[in-house]
Amino acid sequence: MDRFETNPKIPPNPLSRKTSVCKSTEPADSGQGWNLYVISSVSTLQLYREIVEYSKRYEQSLSHSCIHLLSEGHLLLRTALLSLQDCDSAERAQLQEAFQESCAHLGDCFSRFDKKDCHLALPYYKMSGLTVTDVIKRNMSMSGISNGYGKGFIFFLKHSIYEETMEEHIKQLL
Q: Is the whole-model pTM more than 0.70?
């Protein structure tokens, strides 16, 4: 018996030197791909807007591709805001506005989820600067498309109402 063959009576050793290489049966360019950007030639805001436009292809299916793209755009804006401490106030205001918009988009995605990540709607909506009324209006317009409200939206509402109630109680106590 060859020293690298496995004996049917003995389970194979996971640290065996025998390796197998999986080769893809389809050409690399036949599957869906992602666009690559050269960041130095495109402004951060333009790149973010292109990412949002591209993510709309996946919006109706609430796939992870949509959330992945929106998260990438969000991180791009966040990095730009953190690295441009001494930029002019107009550019910073535009980046901040786009950042809050990206938070709202991510909040919308997670508010429609009925999965384990639905709780992420709360922090994204909080970072967006939207009022509870604004979030309700956004979700009312989306509920017709997705047949109801998602767990993330209900989670957001419960916590927002709880926070407001607690603030009122604290004010009364003081």
A: no
